[in-house]
Amino acid sequence: MNDKKKILDFKVLTKIIRLAAPYKKKFFLSIFLSVILAIISPVRPYLIQYTINHFIQDKNTFWLIMITVIQVGLLLIETLLRFYFGFITSWLGQYVVNDLRLKVFNKVLSFNLRQYDKTPIGTLTTRTINDIEAVNNVFSDGLIPIIADLLSIVSILLFMFGVDWRLSLISLAPFPILIIATYFFKESVNKSFIKVRNAVAALNAFVQEHLSGMHVVQAYTSEKREFAKFREINNSHRRANIRAIFAYSVFFPVVEIVLAVSIGLLVWWGGNYSADAGVIISFIMYLNLLFRPLRVIADKFNTLQMGMVAGERVFQVLDNPDVTDTSKSVYIPAQTKGKLTFTDVWFSYGNDKYVLKDISFEARAGETIALVGHTGSGKTSIISLINRFYTINRGSIKMDDVSIYDYDLEYLRSRIAVVLQDVFLFSGSVLDNITLRNNNIPKDKVIEAAKAIGVHDFIMRLPGGYDYKVMERGATLSLGQRQLISFIRALLYDPAILILDEATSSIDSESERLIQNAIDTMIRGRTSIVIAHRLSTIRKADRIIVLDQGRIMESGTHDELIARKGAYYKLHKLQFEKQEIEVRE
Length: 585
Hints:
Blueprint: H1 3-7, H2 10-18, H3 24-40, H4 43-56, H5 61-110, H6 113-118, H7 121-163, H8 165-171, H9 175-212, H10 214-219, H11 223-272, H12 277-318, E1 340-348, E2 354-363, E3 368-373, H13 379-386, E4 394-399, E5 402-403, H14 409-414, E6 416-419, E7 428-429, H15 430-435, H16 443-452, H17 456-460, E8 469-470, H18 479-492, E9 497-501, H19 509-523, E10 527-531, H20 535-540, E11 543-548, E12 551-556, H21 558-564, H22 567-584
Parallel strand pairs: 3-10, 3-11, 6-9, 9-10
Antiparallel strand pairs: 1-2, 1-4, 4-5, 7-8, 11-12
Helix pairs in contact: 2-12, 3-5, 3-7, 4-5, 4-12, 5-7, 7-8, 7-9, 7-12, 8-11, 9-11, 9-12, 11-12, 16-18, 18-19, 21-22
């Protein structure tokens, strides 16, 4: 669907209006205020006309004072009503946006990881922040203000034609010019705003990606090339804004010229055909009142259109079906032993190329399985399937002889702990990162878990201990320190199954010792699936599964596989023989 069709899709507008359903009293109150303001505004010029024609010429002091008081009173009432109208529409927009942002973020939390694989994070950020803010403008600066302006225009025209239809036709003669100018202005600005919004999304995605991968940019001295690319995207954003600014710069002077011509025609006709002075002055006031909404209604209509375009994008997120299906996932057993069974599992990341092919193995309760293989062999894909981050194409995965897809998802994931080598830490304290802000986990339990795996002393050496402030992604902590924190996080939930991806990077000797002790403690008595990079971990495994290009090549203990002199033997000589020599030394 192209952008123009989106703009004219009033189904989207209906959806946006429905978002205000919980606040329908405020919505209808704003419409009611629009009607009242539309009636009040043209009354003052009419009173001016009546005063000039009847009381000024007759020098009726009493009625001059009374009319002045009424005028001031009407002006005060109109001012207060306009203030309240603006407040109500803004209030409505903010509450709708607050609810919508919660819905969108809740939806984002439910996405399969497959969705994040194919959607740039910057795009989702734009949908959650910029586009939702544009939906707010539909209420505060778009739909309701447009209704108010249209009611005001109709009311003013009724008053004008009621006073003198000939004079009305004469003074409105230049209006076709304004209508044509408004149409071209709307089209020009609308195209520019679409390009602006697309450019903003591109900027967000580019900046987000490059801030995350800045170490790669700097390591390969690619700063100048990436800056050139950013400048190109930034220039596209500037050009789109300049086009919009140019349209505004042309349109508003045209409006003023049309108003001046209308007043000139009014004065010429009135002077030649002896119109009352009161009528001439009131018509000048009517024209000013009429042009006030006309100056901005095209802009407001563009705001409405852009809100609809943004709303369409937001609804695409809300209507996205790529979520974890939990409709049939209700099974909650009394206890979990941790037996894990893969049977004839085939899996692909949304394309025709299978990354796992006919995978079958069983991990008995309390058993440690080490997954080894070259990069791209399928190790990470296997552990990503166990807690239903992705859905398999064929075969079955069972926990305690029950399909993982039958388990209540929250229960399933509560019984499986995942510790990856690239540990993600959030901004906040160490304690917050361990509990993930779960207030039901007391600090004493956290300390107990940290002591159980020998990590408590390391945390207490940090400035502030458990209250140490972690920067975004744990930038102030080493890889080993981040993984130690994630071990506590995993142990807190006393999982039946532990999934561990050992760090491949070099870490300091103290962290190495703490990590190895923590691993030994955590896997004891638990079913453990380990992507192993350390020879010590591989040797301790009950069974080793060797993967290559998505298939299981062989499995067995370390000694059994070495004796076979097959795929593991070759991999061992290539990757682990150096570690073995270092251990002997």
